Amino acid sequence: MPELSMEVKEVKDIVCYALGSFARPFDSTELIRKIIDSLRTTTGSMRGDLLIYQSDMDILFFSETSSSDSGSKKQAKINIADSQRSAAVKALKSGYTVLVDDVTESGLQSLSPGSKTLLAVPVIYSDCIHGVLNLEHNDVSAYDTGTVTWIEVTCSILASLLEHSYQSERIFRLNQRLIDSMTGNLADNDPQYRAHAERVSSMAVAIAQKLGLSRKLVEAVQESGYLHDIGKAGVSQNILVKPGNLTADEFQEIKKHPILGRFMLKPLGFQTEVIEGVVSHHERWDGKGYPRGLRGDQIPITGRILAVAEAFDVMTSEQPYREKMTREEALKDIQNQAGMQFDPSVVEALVKLDLKNM
After folding, report:
1. H/E segment holding residue 215
2. How remote is the C-alpha of 177 from its chain's centroid?
3. DSSP labels for 59-82?
4. 71 vs 299: which has the higher pLDDT
């Protein structure tokens, strides 16, 4: 294989970066945008487009467009039936790369005035054509064999990213329905469940932001705050709605809900930080909590935050076994438990919040 040019090596780096992204959460739209822009700039193309095929409407719509001309007009779609002279349509229908060295002699149309050579590569995952990558250049010898090869490799990565994105969205919607069903069952038996979950989630986010946590952790705190009691869907409803004190056996049953929450959420692909928040929100700073008896920094930060947020909400809400506290009383009680039940730094963050506006 001939030595790759610097531009093609940079394209290779993009491919490697995309491959590495599968192992971690990523915004596929942002990554695809970067790949299209980098492909255009590293090859010196006038423009680059990712066109997504919508079979039900028989169109190619412009998902991402990168152009060296900031004033260049961006199209919205290409109607397949009306665009038989388009290189992109030809690549879509044939399933093969279309390279046009000289637009004027090909009879095909370019998208940008001044384009002399066109490259259209189908974006295929398995047997499914998701769309076409379109590149245009003002140099008739711009796309040599090595460059075309790496662009085709990049298109296979784009296809995988698109497939991953579609499947992730599908799984997310299925999971959301499942979660809604479980929380709906809980809400049917406990009308305050959903409101409590939303308040805990909101306060936990405020605490996390006050602590200066990363965006990823703040989002994990938000999700785990809303789902922290999801494991109660696996606890007897007679126990959950029982008025008065619980027996020792009933309390042991209630104490299973963090572990049950973990078993429910883990198969659904939730972040580790979200699951750890759910399973550890009843751990104590002094190691006397449950279900694992973790102590101090052994407790995940999401769990430490939720412990404080939930305690504050429970104290300041109506309960069947006692009257609710004022914000000031609850705050004082929590401060008294700093270093014993609660992480002192989390309590300090709570104290700094403007609780009147929450």
Report:
1. helix 215-227
2. 17
3. EEEEEEEEES-TTPPPP-EEETTT
4. 299
pLDDT in tens, 22-78: 323 345 778 888 889 889 998 999 999 999 998 888 888 888 888 877 655 567 888
CA-based end-to-end distance of the chain:
64
CA distance 232 to 255: 9
Structure tokens at 188: 């049917």
Whether the predicted model's global pTM rises above the 0.70 cut: no
Residue 306 CA to residue 181 CA, distance in Å, equals 23
Residue ranges with strand state E in the chain? 47-54, 59-67, 77-79, 98-100, 117-125, 128-137
Contact 86, 105 (CB under 8 A): no
Instruction: With CA atoms as reference, report the closest residue to 90 among 65, 60, 112.
Output: 60
Q: Please count the other Cβ atoms lying within 10 Å of the Cβ belonging to residue 119.
A: 26
Rounded to 5°, the CA angle 11-13-14 comes to: 65
Q: Is-contact 110 97, C-beta < 8 A?
A: no
What is the total residue count of the chain? 358
Token output for 219 = 């989002």
Sign of CA dihedral 176, 179, 185, 186: negative
Q: How far apart are CA 319 and CA 258, in angstroms?
A: 21
Nearest-angstrom CA–CA distance, 215 and 234: 31
- Residue 41's CB: how many other CB atoms inside 10 A? 14
Task: Report how far residue 301's alpha carbon sits from residue 71's, in angstroms, rounded to the nearest whole number.
Answer: 48
**DSSP track, 327-350:** HHHHHHHHHHTBTTTB-HHHHHHH
Q: Which domains does the chain have, with CATH numbers?
A: 6-168 (3.30.450.40), 177-357 (1.10.3210.10)
Helices vs. strands in the chain: H and E counts, helices first: 14, 6
Residues 6+ apart with CB under 8 A from 49: 36, 62, 64, 65, 66, 88, 111, 133, 134, 135
Rounded alpha-carbon distances, angstroms, from residue 265 to 30, 90, 166, 245: 27, 45, 21, 29
Bridge partners of 57? none
